[in-house]
From TrEMBL:
GO terms for biological process: lipid metabolic process; methylation. InterPro entries: CFA/CMAS (IPR050723), SAM-dependent_MTases_sf (IPR029063). SUPFAM superfamilies: S-adenosyl-L-methionine-dependent methyltransferases (SSF53335). The lineage of its organism: Eukaryota, Viridiplantae, Streptophyta, Embryophyta, Bryophyta. This is Predicted protein. It comes from the Eukaryota. Pfam families: CMAS. Keywords: Lipid metabolism, Methyltransferase, S-adenosyl-L-methionine, Transferase. PANTHER family: CYCLOPROPANE-FATTY-ACYL-PHOSPHOLIPID SYNTHASE (PTHR43667:SF1).
Length: 414
């Protein structure tokens, strides 16, 4: 039902996302930018769930993360999923955390704290936030302070859940935090829930014999009724950015999806031509330059749960000027004729290609260094131009080594 990172909170669709995976990664990226993350900072995730935020922040922003949760299953799954990244998962009550962090985030946990614990929650966050740090609170909220929890949701889905109101959050923050920013994108939860429902319907035949009709009706009602509540604007989704004493000169919200991720410095590049950023609707691959390419490709494939296999080696074909828009469209219409093809005189290095069904992709060559080039997956096939290389109905690969058979490249298939 969820995306590949198991993100069980609202996605951000307003940035142009077309799929659930894109909406969730856009949301995670937006959180990272609202927190102004940068390499070397420490991030505390209160109620870290399946670890999606910390995994994304560590991969793309170079931060060190600590997550607290009371779920053994989630902690075990996330620790295995993000093995090798600077992330620590702790089975710990958030109220016992006492060390300082540069940034704090809590995504989808405050709804489960209960109004009697709102102030305690904020006191813990205040205690753990370094002076000059930022705290992002992501929570569903209600319009009326004294509204009671929905009895059906309380019984079947979220026992003891209690949505806060604006006033209740303000009361809890009183004297502790300055509210730097409040962002309401509750309408996007409607789209998120409908995407979850579509995934649930698609997967249901595999589970119906085990779970039965009662579960199907319960879960469908939960997803659809909540989507209706967000669509009617009866409940909201808020992201608060809080600081202890106020950001000098004021805080500027970042909401638009960023293009550039964390890039290694020139000194860090060593033998890798450049940072490799492999993006599709279903997977993102980033390679840190100080690591060996084949090992990192395999590591990221494992983390993203992408099946990998060796693929055919294909040399450069003709000139990149042959890849006009008509040529590209022709290849897309006739994928069987161009099963494995890559071309581009501008690259001047061997490349590896492979089909990956259901994904249209484009790659382009970038800086040459140490006898090799990195290929970066581009945004859309419609942006094809003379300096790009297109793989029909699929994508590709990744790094081409010149005269180095000891480093086989790999293709990644979903």
């Amino acid at each position: 039902m969820l995306d590949g990172r198991m993100t069980y909170t609202c996605g951000y669709w307003s940035g142009g996302a077309r799929t659930l995976q894109e909406a969730q990664e856009t949301k995670l990226d937006m959180i990272c930018r609202k927190l102004e993350l940068k390499p070397g900072l420490r991030l505390l995730d209160i109620g870290c769930g399946w670890g999606s935020l910390m995994g994304f922040a560590a991969e793309h922003y170079g931060v060190r993360c600590v997550g607290v949760t009371i779920s053994k299953e989630q902690a075990a799954w996330a620790a295995e999923r993000y093995k090798g990244l600077p992330i620590e998962f702790r089975l710990q009550d958030y109220r016992t955390v006492s060390e300082k962090f540069d940034r704090i985030a809590s995504v989808g946990m405050f709804e489960h704290v209960g109004r009697k614990n709102h102030r305690t929650y904020m006191e813990v966050a205040h205690r753990c936030l370094a002076d000059g740090g930022l705290f992002l609170l992501h929570t569903i909220g209600k319009n009326i302070r004294d509204a009671t929890p929905d009895p059906w949701i309380d019984k079947y889905i979220f026992p003891n859940g209690d949505l806060p109101s604006l006033g209740q959050i303000g009361d809890a923050c009183d004297g502790l935090f300055v509210a730097e920013d409040l962002h309401n994108f509750g309408a996007d939860y409607d789209k998120t829930l409908m995407a979850w429902h579509a995934n649930f319907e698609h997967a249901w035949p595999r589970f119906k014999d085990r779970l039965g009709e009662h579960f199907y009706r319960m879960w469908s009602y939960y997803l659809l009724s909540c989507a209706g509540a967000f669509r009617a604007r009866d409940i909201q989704l808020w992201q608060w950015v809080l600081s202890k004493k106020g950001v000098p000169g004021g805080y500027q919200r970042a909401t638009q999806p960023s293009i550039a991720r964390y890039r290694p410095s020139i000194e860090e590049t060593l033998t890798l031509a450049s940072h490799l950023d492999f993006q599709t609707a279903l997977a993102r691959l980033e390679v840190r330059a100080e690591d060996r390419v084949p090992r990192l490709l395999a590591l990221r494939a494992d983390v993203e749960q992408i099946q990998q296999r060796p693929v055919e080696h294909v040399g450069p074909v003709g000139s990149s000027h042959q890849l006009g828009r008509c040529k590209v469209a022709d290849r897309l219409r006739r994928p069987q004729k161009h099963r494995d093809f890559i071309a581009g005189g501008g690259l001047r290095v061997p490349c590896v290609v492979a089909r990956m069904p259901h994904i249209l992709a484009m790659i382009r060559g970038v800086e040459k260094m140490a006898g090799m080039r990195a290929l970066i997956l581009h945004e859309t096939v419609q942006q094809a131009c003379n300096d790009t290389v297109v793989i029909e109905q699929g994508v590709v690969v990744l790094v081409a080594h010149r005269n180095d058979p000891g480093h086989p490249s790999r293709a990644f298939h979903l």
